[in-house]
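Q: What structure does this chain adopt?
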Amino acid sequence: MESLLHSLIRYQPFKAFWVLTTAILTILRAPFWLVYLLPYSFRPHSSWSLRQSFMVRILKVVLYHTSLVQAHPPWSLTPNSEKERWERIAPSQKNIYRGVLNDREIKPVEVGGTWYPTVYEQGNARRRAVILHFHGGAFVIGDGRKSDLGHGAGLLTSHADCWVFGLQYRISSNPGCRFPAALQDAVTAYQSLLDRGIPASSIILSGDSAGGNIAIGLLRYISETSNLLPKPKAALLWCPWVNPGYCLNPRPCSSSRNYKTDFLEDAFVEWGIRTYAPPPLDATGPYISPLNHPFKCEGVPMWVQFGEVEILADDIVRFAEGMRGLEGNEMDVHEDKGLPHDIFLVGGILPFSDAAEKMARAMGQWLKKKL
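A:
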């Protein structure tokens, strides 16, 4: 009965009814949540304000029901409000989609992305490099546009003095967009920057959550394909999702010691990995779950940030330790006390804006030493 209900609410008019009912119930419950969270002892973390505690609860509810109805942004290459900052990118004609990217069903396609704060200008001395960023969203939501990546892109442009290109890669909630679609798109975007005359020494890879996973995958691909693509200058990994394959197990989030201090939900991450790596793909393989598959990436320093009380914290620490164990790898790990998952992306919503600014300043100082 439950599976039948879950199937029905993914289609209209049942989806609209479910969303409306959920919204009404959430509004009715909100005053009780606020009262409950008034004492500090009842808040998920003693350092959180009432507003932070309340918004984490709200986001948890939103992600849960988004997963049930499987709501996701429509695929579009139209500029919309991004206007002249939007750029479409055709797949490269060069033979750069090899090995794991050479899939019989999934082929490279035209993609798009948004420039921040303005369109890239060659020779502009005010900005020193280009950051190619991959947004988070468990591979199933997000699009890298202003409404999605605006907060994170603002942090990067303010503290790194770089242009940012937010890629709208194919998300796996759309048909025919399983792995390696997103990684193909990442390679397409990286090659397009090189084709514009931007040297690899001026390109920084960046990704948050699932986007961090894609950034790691791109780094692995560049490192393992032997001079097919030049290595970037550095990589910024914000709360990277390094073990999606684990989320095929029962209660991947709710069994975590940090479940109460994070907004990630079982249904959300399960939706992500089941669509991104459906059978017969191996969800525990190196390009999907890099946690237990460290690789050498000599010459590319990596900034790894995570929240102390997020669900992914232990996995991120283990991933960094594994990478550090290989000669030539440089990993700078930054744990932010009292923070949940991916404040880079949602810090303005929850709100943890001050903490997001602090971690971005630290990133900017680190990056200045590398450029």
